[in-house]
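Changelog note: in this version the structure field was regenerated for every chain. One regenerated record is shown below for reference.
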Amino acid sequence: RANAVFSGGNYDEALSLYTEALNLLAPPVPPPPFSTPIISDNHDVAVVAEATSTISPPPSDTAATSATTTPPPAAIPATATTQAAETPVTPSVVSASPPEEKPAETPAPAVPEPAAAATPEPSPEELARRKQLADLAALLLNNRSACHLRLGHFEECVADTTRVLATAGFERNVKALDRRAQAYQALGKQDQALADYKAV
């Protein structure tokens, strides 16, 4: 269908169809999940919580009552304080003992890491399937590059044709080289364009 649309001159629709077909072959990798923490718009809650955490609760009635009803401490006789002041205090001598030497710790033996499992080689059928998909993707990219060239998307045309020429079996594809040369020429890259024209 995309080829028929391209032949009809509707390059925008053909470009969308080729891109859709390429995504079916190799779906694009989704972007990583948005990991930035979500901040709530209700800032008043955090402010109130912070304010209340710094204010100590008022003393309860029970504490106030106990403070008023507690009897004052008994007076200490003057003679007792005088005897305590006259009694000499003998300083205690602490004998300094040498610090105990700890035995040297022996390092734990290194645990060998498990060997990575060998990746099995793909079967011939799997290799043939991959080659078929790569060839189909190169054809779609080559056709999409023609849409980019007709629409004036020269950078995109260079990108698609470069991917085509990097595919095994398409290194000397004439259409890809010619389209990339035209795109290079439109971008003012004369040296690259000349090299592709010579390779055609």
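Spot check on this record: Residues 29-73, 75-87, 89-95 have pLDDT under 50 and may be disordered. The two ends are 29 Å apart (CA to CA).
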